[in-house]
Design a protein that fits this description.
Largest sheet of chain B: 5 strands, antiparallel
Shape of chain B: globular
Number of domains of chain A: 4
GO molecular function, one term (chain A): metal ion binding
Protein name (chain A): Sulfite reductase (NADPH) hemoprotein beta-component
Helix content of chain B: 25-40%
Structural class of chain A: alpha+beta
Organism (chain A): Roseivivax halotolerans
Largest sheet of chain A: 6 strands, mixed
Shape of chain A: globular
Pfam families (chain A): NIR_SIR, NIR_SIR_ferr
Keywords (chain A): 4Fe-4S, Heme, Iron, Iron-sulfur, Metal-binding, Oxidoreductase
Radius of gyration of chain A: 23 Å
Distance between the termini of chain B: 50 Å
Number of helices of chain A: 18
CATH architecture of the largest domain in chain A: 2-Layer Sandwich
Oligomer: heterodimer
Low-confidence stretches of chain B: none
Mean pLDDT of chain A: 96
Structural class of chain B: alpha+beta
Number of strands of chain B: 5
Chain lengths: ~550, ~100
């Protein structure tokens, strides 16, 4: 993985010293809160409902064991012994005190991490496929270009005061696991003949006005990528609405001006900018790429794996749900679920972080990934090591076999922590997971993505959940709207609202009625929820939700 | 007829800890809603708010929150304020834990 150059280390150290001085000046009264707030946000520090919250960048979700251990240390020393992994592959600490934050940032810098541009109207942490460099279906590893974009966007002088935040995601695989269509810019690595290039999507986003990204360039050559990105952000920086924060994101700019006009403006700007990129970026990319060289994969017999698979039902169940095909023979991508039934989605204790770090070191070529689905990935594990790995996970409450299942729920922090939230998300996720665990029908249901947001800003990606849940405040009472048919993959689609919302007490039974209806409606156990929904449409599910006394039939409409 | 004024408390987050605080009658800050000064007059509430806003070295984000006065002290009228005076529901952290700590 990428290691800091002298320049990176010096830059982060300088920023940390600068922020330390700013915190001191805030505390001694030299800075007002109005002056301090943009400064703290540039360094990832929010003030939430009960405390400050520090959001730490995990670039494209990649961590090594040493970094994960340092996060554990920070959680114990300055927080309440846990961290929360987010839908943008970052980690948040929910309880730091203002005076401690400069020390936390210094501790992060020791392991080449920081919190720069995890907030504010800047280009945020670049996210990528969490299976990058490992997936069997990958065209090319998206991390080198994600790192190049990180370097280009960090402290970019033109892009420090954008109309609003700006998010970029990259996938190197046609199976989009990075939700690229819901980003301000989505990059998809594609092949044309033997040449590798980029399909560029622009103007995607969730939030109050969900939009699926539109293709602005079908095939961009690699050497044109940075100037083209700079052209897009530059065009939006001028056109973007600064008068109304609900209309400031690039999705609105693209929507208001139309993709053709935006494309023409971007092409003009690109023509101006392109000569300034004389190839140094490509030299840097080549250097970065070398740092992401694949580990040396070993060849070993699979007898131990096969024996455990035949003998141990718990191991078999975990293998069947939590593994993904690896590109190297004998290897697997192993996902560690942070969704134990009834637990807070995305939370890991300091002890669990250390266990995952140890396992990555022992069995996983020292690599960990944070997925946007709030789980941890060990991207390179030889199958012969999986029985021992699984046994260790079991000892620490990390062996939940539910990846992609109904209890593998994305949930934002919601009203339990977030100052913007209008309702709670976490308890709803906990109750749904607990309920379906009791029913013991998770495996029968199969692939089903529930995503929950505690407000319209949609951090919980509810618009692209197969079942999306949005928590709102209706006259001081939590109310939950349901959407169905959302899709977060390369076939991205925004879900449709079912109708009136449900109270906190009613929402879990409502989800159960949807699932019961699906089990009746599907034409076979192989037809996933999302496919059944596409085939039968909304009406039978509406019947199940709002007229439960009626029989659910596919032709009910 | 003017609308009746909903009683209020002055609330904010402490600058250093980020913890929720309420303004007491003696101008000190308390961590407990029960000890907050309940303001029943609109003009008085606005003056108290302005005074509190002039203390940026102590608190951040000062505002007036609606409460319902009861014999046990002011009670929140909105869910959000109920969370602010209690702590999160997924862990026994924040004020609920501190309260228990101080009783032990």
């Amino acid at each position: 993985m990428y290691t800091y150059s002298e320049f990176d280390a010096a830059y982060v150290a300088k920023r940390n010293a600068e922020f330390r001085a700013q915190v001191e000046r805030r505390i001694d009264g030299s800075l007002t809160e109005d002056e301090f707030k943009p400064l703290r946000l540039m360094n990832g520090l929010y003030l939430q409902l009960h405390a400050y919250m520090l959001r730490v960048a995990v670039p494209y979700g990649t961590l090594n064991a040493r970094q994960m251990r340092q996060l554990a240390m920070i959680a114990e020393r300055w927080d309440k012994g846990y961290g929360h992994f987010t839908t943008r592959q970052n980690i948040q600490f929910n309880w730091p005190e203002l005076r401690d934050v400069p020390d936390i940032l210094d501790a992060l810098a020791e392991v080449e991490m920081h919190a720069i541009q995890t907030s504010g109207n800047t280009i945020r942490n670049v996210t990528a496929d969490h299976f990058a460099g490992a997936a069997a279906d990958e065209i090319a590893d998206p991390r080198p270009v994600a790192e190049l974009i990180r370097q280009w966007s960090t402290d970019h002088p033109e892009f420090q005061f954008l109309p609003r935040k700006f998010k970029i995601a990259v996938t190197g695989s046609p199976n989009d696991r990075a939700v690229t269509a819901a980003h301000d810019i989505g990059l998809r690595i594609v092949e044309r003949g033997s040449e590798i290039g980029y399909q560029v999507l622009v103007g995607g986003g969730l939030g109050r006005t969900p939009m699926i990204g539109k293709v602005i360039a079908e095939f961009l050559r690699e050497e044109d990528l940075l100037p083209y990105l700079e052209a897009i952000v530059s065009v939006w920086n001028l056109l973007g609405r600064r008068d109304n924060k609900y209309k400031s994101r690039i999705k609105i700019t693209v929507h208001e001006h139309g993709i053709e006009e935006i494309r023409a403006l971007v092409d003009d700007r690109f023509a101006e900018l392109r000569p300034a990129f004389t190839g140094i970026d490509q030299e840097m990319l080549a250097t970065i790429r070398a740092e992401f060289a694949a580990p040396v994969f070993r060849d070993a017999p699979l007898d131990a794996f096969d024996a455990a698979y035949d003998k141990d039902p718990a191991f078999r169940s975990w293998v069947d749900t939590n593994l993904t095909d690896h590109r190297a023979p004998g290897y697997a991508i192993a996902e560690i679920s942070l969704k134990a039934h009834g637990a807070t989605p995305g939370d890991a204790t300091a002890e669990q972080m250390r266990v995952m770090a140890d396992l990555a070191e022992r069995y996983g070529h020292d690599e960990l990934r944070v997925s946007h689905e709030q789980n941890i990935v060990l991207p390179h594990v030889h199958k012969s090591d999986l029985p021992a790995l699984h046994a260790e996970l079991q000892r620490h409450g990390l062996a939940t076999a539910n990846i992609g299942r109904i209890s593998d729920i994305i949930a934002c922090p919601g009203m339990d922590y977030c100052a913007l939230a209008t309702a709670r998300s976490i308890p709803i996720a906990q109750e749904i997971a607990t309920r379906f665990d009791e029913l013991k029908i998770e495996n029968e249901i199969g692939d089903l993505k529930i995503k929950i947001s505690g407000c319209i800003n949609a951090c919980g990606h509810h618009h692209v959940g197969h079942i999306g849940i949005l928590g709102l405040d209706r006259a001081g009472v939590e109310n939950y709207q349901i959407t169905l048919g959302g899709d977060h993959t390369e076939a991205a689609r925004v879900g449709q609202r079912t109708g009136p919302g449900f109270s906190a007490e009613e929402i879990v039974p409502a989800v159960e009625r949807i699932v019961d209806a699906y089990l009746i409606l599907r034409d076979s156990a192989d037809e996933r929820f999302i496919d059944t929904f596409a085939r039968v449409g909304m009406d039978p599910f509406k019947t199940a939700l709002y007229e439960p006394e009626k029989e659910v039939r596919a032709d009910a409409a | 007829m003017p609308r009746p004024f909903t009683p209020k408390v002055v609330t904010a987050n402490a600058l250093l800890e980020g913890d929720v605080v309420y303004l007491r009658e003696d101008d000190g800050w308390t961590r407990e809603l029960a000890d907050a000064d309940v303001l029943t007059d609109e003009a008085h509430a606005q003056v108290r708010l302005l005074d509190a806003e002039r203390r940026p070295g102590e608190v951040v984000g000062v505002y007036l929150a609606d409460v319902a006065p009861t014999e046990a002290g002011p009670e929140p009228t909105h869910l959000r304020e109920d969370f602010r005076r209690t702590g999160p529901s997924n862990y026994f952290h924040g004020k609920q834990a501190e309260r228990q700590g101080s009783e032990v």
